[in-house]
Amino acid sequence: MKYCSNRPCALYAVKALYHESKSDEPERHSTEELHALNLTPTISSALFPRFSPNGEFLVFLSAKSAVDSGVHNATNSLHRIDWPTDRKLYQSAKIYDI
Fold it and tell me: Is 44 exposed, middle or buried (0-12, 13-18, 19+ CB in 10 A)?
């Protein structure tokens, strides 16, 4: 597999629309209810997301300096998004530098 970390990329979230049904098979709602939410619209690169052990934060690496400058293997940076406890996601979530 070949890839280039100099290309813009983003993190997206999609709400899972599955729930328990009375049968053994999970019930799925219509796909027209699905909306992909860009969690990182203000940063040109976001990759390798991980949740903190307590689920309060989503942390990820960014190759923003490589994307913005075109220099291969430029310095990566670490960022954090506060993950909402009510599970209501907003595209305007603040991205913190760590």
Answer: middle
User: What span, in angstroms and rounded, lies between the C-alpha atoms of 57 and 51?
Assistant: 6
Please write the tens of the pLDDT for every residue from 36-62: 889 999 999 999 999 999 999 999 999
Secondary structure element (H or E) that encloses residue 65, with its range: helix 64-69
> CB–CB of 96/81 below 8 Å?
yes
Contact 82, 94 (CB under 8 A): yes
Q: Alpha-carbon distance 46 to 63, whole Å?
A: 7
